[in-house]
């Protein structure tokens, strides 16, 4: 695909990246809250605008990026991400600084991604997962840093054994992955410090 055939990224890269980063930081600081995330990018399917916006915000030529099979199987998606981010796309999720997931039900287990170390916990993978819907009420109860008492979060779809995976992830703190969830125009986050249970 030529550069001319690749769809556009941000119209105003600095302003839009800052706005998306601000929304993401608010979501990470307050797990269980759902924030507006108006991703105005013309991304090639199956890359959602929200996945694309976070890739353009977080990923650069120094980062390693892992894509799930749905995204990695699309040449237009590969070309788009390589052109706009310059990131090195890796096949092993354990090598990734960032991961983009279009199909949550088919993603590897959380333990297969980069876990960081006790000395360098920031060397773990931040996983960005596209979901169909997010809501501030639903089947998940959250406690932990950034949450006053308890919070409720609805995520559709929600993989069947994700709660047990998140518990194992949280137990190895300061190591572990952080999750960012995006739906149409929305973002929420489940940092490694958050305790998640089903209600």
What would you note in describing this structure?
The protein is α/β, with parallel strands linked by helices and 199 residues long. It has a single domain (11-198), classed as Rossmann fold, CATH 3.40.50.11310. Helix content is 26%, strand content 25%. A hairpin with a 7-residue loop joins strand 6 and strand 7 (151-156). The protein is globular and about 50 Å long.
Low-confidence stretches: none
- Main β sheet profile: 7 strands, mixed
Order of helices and strands: HEHEHHEEEEEHEEE
Fourth-tier CATH superfamily name: Bacterial phosphonate metabolism protein PhnH
Q: Roughly how many Å is the radius of gyration? A: 16 Å
CATH class: Alpha Beta
Structure summary:
26% of the residues lie in helices and 25% in strands.
Q: What are the salient characteristics of this protein?
A:
about 200 residues, alpha/beta, Rossmann fold, seven-stranded mixed beta sheet, three-stranded antiparallel beta sheet, 10 strands
Topology:
Blueprint: H1 13-29, E1 35-36, H2 49-58, E2 64-67, H3 69-72, H4 75-85, E3 88-90, E4 98-101, E5 126-130, E6 133-143, E7 151-156, H5 162-171, E8 178-183, E9 186-190, E10 195-198
Parallel strand pairs: 2-3, 2-4, 4-5, 5-8
Antiparallel strand pairs: 1-9, 6-7, 6-10, 8-9
Helix pairs in contact: 1-2
